[in-house]
Structures are given as structure tokens and as C-alpha cells.
Amino acid sequence: MHELIGRWWANYDEGEFDVLNALATDDVVFTCRTDTGTHPYENFIAASTRGRAELDAHHRPHRAGSPYPLRHNATNIHTTADRGSEVDLRTYLSVTDIVDAKPSPVSSGIVDFTIRETADGPRVAAFHVVLDFAATKAWA
């Protein structure tokens, strides 16, 4: 599972859309938003797709409209549910680009993945991204 998620983000960062399409199920579901829904670029960030063709149609212009190099890093990957042929995983997401020749944080968030076992091996069946935008505050 870790290897699949690593391959997913590395290929997304490099714009390897044919690889991404091969890593997704035909019925893949993808959503993306910020935690507040009020980010100045919310319209660029927000997405809701169903199926490989819709995901591809979203990914290509979205990635082309983003900086390069851009690096998506998944950490703290852990299982939240196991249904035998499908496993749900949650990860933190940290995204960086380069500013003044140094890595610079772009965003962070949480991603919930569903990985399904197929005849071709494990594939991404769903992923839901919620990017952090609300200001950090003391734990209540």
C-alpha cells in the first residue's frame, strides 16, 4: 500500500498521467477541497470526479496550472478499514515547491485512500483530499 501511494504522488508530480490512469480503477472516485471552502483558489482546488476518464480530465489541466517542481509527500500512512479486497488508508499530505532555491511548504492536509485488489494488483479506487487552510489554534 505504501509503495502504491508513493508511486501515485511521484507520478502525479511528474505529470505521468498514463501511469496514474493505470494505477486507478475504472470507477475511481476523487474529491478535493479545503477544510474551510474559502481558500482564494478554492475553484482551482475543488474537484469531484467519478471514473478514470473524469479523473484524467481533471488532473491534466490542474497539474499544468500548478508549479513545477511540486512535491506531494504522504506520511503517517495507516489503515482505517479492511474489507478483504479493499483497504482504506489515511495519510497526511505535505506539498512543497521551491522558493529562493529552497523547499517551501505549499499546503498540508489529509488524504483518505481506498485501495482495491484487482487482477492487475492493488489499484486506487478512491481518494479524498482535504487541504488545511484554517488557522491553527489551541486544542479545545
What does this structure look like?
The chain is an alpha+beta fold. It has one domain: Nuclear Transport Factor 2, Chain: A (Roll). 26% of the residues lie in helices and 49% in strands. The chain is built from 4 helices and 6 strands; from the N terminus they run ααβαβαββββ. The chain has a 6-stranded mixed β-sheet with strand order 2-1-6-5-4-3. A hairpin with a 2-residue loop joins β4 and β5. It is globular and about 45 Å long. The model has no long low-confidence stretch (mean pLDDT 96).
List the helices and strands and how they pair.
Elements: H1 2-13, H2 17-23, E1 24-34, H3 42-45, E2 47-50, H4 52-64, E3 71-82, E4 86-99, E5 102-118, E6 121-131
Parallel strand pairs: 1-6
Antiparallel strand pairs: 1-2, 3-4, 4-5, 5-6
Helix pairs in contact: 1-2
CATH class: Alpha Beta
Structural class of the helices, strands and pairings?
alpha+beta
**Number of distinct helices:** 4
Strand order of the largest sheet: 2-1-6-5-4-3
CATH topology, by name, is Nuclear Transport Factor 2, Chain: A
Distance between the termini: 34 Å
- Percent range for β-strand residues: over 45%
Shape-level CATH architecture: Roll
Low-confidence stretches: none
Write down the overall mean pLDDT: 96
Measured as a percent range, the helix fraction is 25-40%
Rounded radius of gyration (Å): 15 Å
User: How many structurally independent domains?
Assistant: 1
Shape: globular
Q: Tell me the major beta sheet.
A: 6 strands, mixed
> What is the helix/strand order?
HHEHEHEEEE
